[in-house]
Amino acid sequence: MALPSADTPLYNHTLPDIELWLTQQGCKQDSSELNRWQIAKAAWQADLILETDSLVVRYLNVGDASEDIQRGFKYSLSRQDLEDAIFAGP
Prior knowledge:
Elements: H1 15-24, E1 28-29, E2 36-40, E3 45-50, E4 54-62, E5 67-74, H2 79-86
Antiparallel strand pairs: 1-2, 2-3, 3-4, 4-5
């Protein structure tokens, strides 16, 4: 399955397209909450939640204080914009 171009807003992607994209980024889907995904990189880890109108990202144990940072991204952003904003880390 080919994804729409990277400059396409996420709201123009089908759910299977979004799930494929998240998988390609290294995310793992939660088997009990299908709208929740996790990703772990060498320097950070995060939970991603597919909400009705946005993608919510919670970076876990960030910085010296080991606090969580939560950010919301509207589906009107392009897939490339989301990749740049989310997968570069907190």
